[in-house]
Amino acid sequence: MNKNIMERWWIWVIPLALVLGVFFLYPLLNVIRLSFSNATITTIKEGFTFENYIHILTGSDFWQVMKVTLIFVFASVLFQLLLGLITAMLINKDLFGSSLVKLSMITAWVVPGIITGVIWSIMYSSSSWGILNYFIRLLGFDQIPFLYTPSWALFSVVLANVWRGTGFSGIMQYAALRGIPDQLYEAAAIDGASTWQQFWNITLPQLKPMLMINTILITIYTFNTYDSIFALTKGGPGSSTTVLSLGAYKQVFRHLNLGRGSAYAVIMLVLSGTFTILYAGFMGSDQ
Amino acid sequence: MKKKTLLIALIVLFAMTSVSFAQDYELVTPERIGNPDAEIVLTANIQRSDTLFAATDNRKDYIRKAAAEWAKAHPNARIDVQVAPTGQISMTMATLLTQAESGNAPDFAHIDSFWVGRFIENGYTKSLNEYMGEDAVNDFYGFTKDVVMKDGEMHAIWGETDARFLYYRKDWIEEPPRTWDETIDVALKMKEEKGVHGFLAWLGSWEGAVNGNVWPLFWAQDGEMFDENGRPVIGEGKNKEALVNSLGFLKRLVDTGAAPVMVSSITSSDPMLAEIRSNNVAMVANGSWLYNQIDDIIDDADEKWDFVPLPQMKADQRANSNGGWTWAVLSDDPVKQELAADYIMRVVGNAEAMAERAKVYNYLPTRESIYENDPYFSENERMQKLSESLEYGNARPANPLYNTVSELTQTALGRLLTGQTDDIEAEVDEIQREALSEWEANK
Amino acid sequence: MVKKISIYMLYGLVSIFFLLPILWTISLSLKTTSEIFIFPPTFIPKDITFDNFLYVLNNTTMTTYLWNSFKLVIYTVFGTLLVAIPAAYSFSRFDFKNKSKLLFVILIFQMISPIVIGIPIYRYYSNLGLLNNYFGLSMVYIAIQIPFATFLLKGGFDAIPKELDEAAKIDGASRFQLLHKVILPVALPALASATIFISINAWSQFLLPYLLLDRTSQYPVSVGILMTQGNFQQISTHYLAAASIIALLPAIIMVFLLQKFILKALTAGAVKG
Fold first, then answer.
1. Under an 8 A CB cutoff, do B261 and A59 touch?
2. For the domain B2-155+323-390, what is the CATH code?
3. pTM for the model
4. Which residues cross the membrane (chain C) (predicted)?
5. Closest CB to C39 among B104, B268, B278
6. Which of C122, C226, C235 sits opposite B85 (nearest CB)?
7. Domain at A54-286: CATH architecture
8. What is the ipTM for the molecules in this complex?
């Protein structure tokens, strides 16, 4: 009997189901309920309302936030993948010094978001400790307003995020590169394929599954990022670097509007869910 | 023989001191005040600056001394201190509110003056009148009482305040500006002549930007954010005009080049102090604390810097914005209430404590009598100049929607300063529209 | 040769990109108050001072924060593995209907931001008296790590040939023995890489500990760093730099010491994805 039970697949999944149910599903349902309520941090009585969604979707700010979020996510993901791929291919050469690159990449990756923000706000400063602007002046250019014009500020939060996120992407792709059998390249070399052709016909297709997974993970991760932006710009100037998660944070902790913050959160969920399903669709059709 | 006696005496003395040393505990530690084995345990949420984690040794000494007196007076009680991080005011305050709602609030708390109204309104705070006496209650400046009084009862002690001024290079500028137009003229002249920034202020995306640099201008024109029913009116009638004017001035500063665009990202003193130190700025609009900071980083502060009231639209207008922190008792237990109130009075509330703390902390006291009775304040010209400005004091309204209005104004200011829009009126309309919709949703 | 040189140059560029922010922060953390205001800035401080570090260590409980972070990481790693290993085993070795769909559903949990669940959990915990409680906090950390850990471990288990199981089964091993004696020892690289991912994610959590802990003495370092930030009554850039370095030091030392191992573990565990 005992043995029989252990032969059932679900018995092994019970702990997982319990933890996810209590700490994800229940709060999640709660958030959805709150998003249809007029709750603030201090109200106890709540009424049912669609007002949160109507307000958010008709507000001018929301579309600005959406735009910023999409740019932030798209640019971060693109550059993390690209830079990660380039770095992975570089260290795959295994020349002397490649371990320094690996080391530096992993180091950036272990920096927590808040500290990333703190460090980069020092880097970007226009004051004497702003090293980037010092270099730029050395090169004979004018100071760059990293954090105080809308487009530069968006650029700056993306750069900081790419700095931190590339380590993960690079290592995963490096792992995938290592997994490509050497015979494939040897065979291609015999057939006289150029480096570029080898990259295009062997490396990329072989990397594809990892690139996909990587893209999903980075996208989700970037979508939920707010701590580094918070420490860098607090979402400003104006709302030029306010992404959805920061918007939710502001609604809850500055406006104390639990209902509206929850509605933001639900919109976030829907969006990242859509991303995930889209990618999954790509992957499914591929296999 | 004598030697021996001496030796024995020394040994006994040593033994005694080491015994008493062994029994003694530190009365005040960063996260505990009083007897560690006390029966009555109070909890308190206090900002870092008022704990032993405070930035400077003299602050720590002040807290250690004042808290130890409380601990000695109540050997059967102790306070467990939750130290709140300084940079996260809204988060700490929101958490405190949630705790108060669910009955988990600490027994007393350090609450930002523009949040305390919400605690009072919701009935989370306790009256302090019986622990203070009427004279003490009456001694506080009017702008503090506007916020912390409810039905004639004082619900929180407003421990200190600050005020906003225009700091200027007196060795460069003969006649400090009094109006907006003069400010821009002087700033441009300085930029031209000296090749420095004409004007700096922390106009980044944060509370300090509006509190320090928008509301004083807005209030000087008799602007009001909310009507007596708590309805937002900031974007209606004369208020709208006042806000449009105020934002317009700040925008003009940047557009004309009187202030660099950099101001739209400044959210701390550091970048301004960096410019001050390198002689690269002529005027800085900032708080009463700045003078001592300047004094810390340059040798000849007295010869270079002076301050005047903030320039206003017209020379005869005047208003200040006054921040500060309050202390409120949240406990339901009468015993704890008394103990908490006693702590607050000993550390911040009593006239002597407040004066002493203000000196140590570089704050302004909120009790009028201190400026008359304490020589440090009554005989110092600079202090009198600071205290005079408290007559024009204003506190941010204790309206639950204040945060929303502030946040919206910060965003609008950022957009205007960085050229994302030029339509000031539309921005003000948007502030009004958003605030109103939130007000209607929560009515 | 030209190719090699250009690769080396790229190595240099990439390393500078990743290391410059940290090196510059170290440089600032060793400067005196007046030197941080000097322009042009000096890379190697003229008078190297450790005062900033002393200041931060004396005035904040940075060491306590580090210790707290460490504890939370340990709890999270153990808790997550405890839950994720059996689940990953089930997904790897059992066949059942809708398996891939279920796995996908679990992965979907991964996309939920901590900010979304933080608020209800706060209300929920304050009723249960689980605020300021490492057990309560670790459970949420664990829940957040489970989806990815399960996914990673399943990949690792899949890579182990089923013939190994079959051989052990014939010897009469139970499922539990199979997992314990056959799979886990072989899946060590996958376990190691899961541990590393979990540790790094748990180390960087910010919002949850901030919401669910009020006691400064319980804060992990990601929240504790805020204690040194934002006191506008004084110049703080150099202190902030020192605090950042202190907060990063344990993680950086780990990376230095375990670099080879980390890479090996990650690549071995990740090949199958």
1. no
2. 3.40.190.10
3. 0.81
4. 7-26, 72-91, 103-122, 134-153, 182-203, 239-258
5. B278
6. C226
7. Orthogonal Bundle (1.10)
8. 0.86
